[in-house]
Structure formats: C-alpha cells, structure tokens
C-alpha cells in the first residue's frame, strides 16, 4: 500500500468517525392529547375535565353549581364502574376516557357530515364539498 492510499484510507476513516450520526426517528405511535388545554394541576383541572368528560360535557359542568356538579359526577362514576363493584379501577377509568374521546370524535364527524351534505342525500359530492369548504357556489 502506498503512502497516498494509506492517507486516503486514514482520511476516509476519520471522516466516517467524525460524521454526525443520522437523525433518530420516533417510531412510536403516540396517542393524541386528551385536551387542548395545558395539563398543570397546580393551576387548574381543565385538562382533566376535558379528558374525563369530553370537551363539550366539560363546558356544561363549568356552568353548574358545586352541588349539581357533584351529583352529576356521581352518576357518571356509576357508568364508569363497569363491573358495578363500587370501585373504579385504572382500566375502567382508561376505558371511560377513551369512550369519552371517541364519542366526541363521532359527534364531530356527524356534525361535519351534515355541514357538507348540502342536499341531504346522505352523500357528499365534490361540488358539495367545495361549496361547504371553500365557499364555491354550486
């Protein structure tokens, strides 16, 4: 091996050693946030209310007196306790939160569908979509 070849191999080795590692990609699917509010229990419980009740239901609870709120939460806890043993497990609470979030998504999809299905035939044509979304005239 000549000196030139040795220097070339040494230079390439140094280049490979000193190169920046490739960017690490996050390959984990993360669940969406349960609320758009800041999760800071020291300041407020708004995030928890949205996650537990769903955003729309949480808005109605904001309007209730503490007594009414306590009574309605008691009824909800009865729904969360799937096995009716008088205790709410972590699994039951997780299932309820997922249920509340899915319910909101389904209701939002239904509302969006009605807003786009201008002739109320149960189908959304491209013309209806353009009109509802971009304001084109049919």
From TrEMBL:
Primary residence: endoplasmic reticulum
Signal sequence region: 1-18
Keyword Disulfide bond: no
GO cellular component terms given for this protein: endoplasmic reticulum membrane; extracellular region; Golgi apparatus; melanosome; sarcoplasmic reticulum lumen
Coiled coil: none
Keywords, alphabetical: Calcium, Endoplasmic reticulum, Glycoprotein, Golgi apparatus, Membrane, Metal-binding, Repeat, Sarcoplasmic reticulum, Secreted, Signal
PROSITE patterns, A to Z: EF_HAND_1, EF_HAND_2
Taxonomic classification: Eukaryota, Metazoa, Chordata, Craniata, Vertebrata
The protein, known as: CALU protein
Record family assignment: Belongs to the CREC family.
Record gene name: Calu
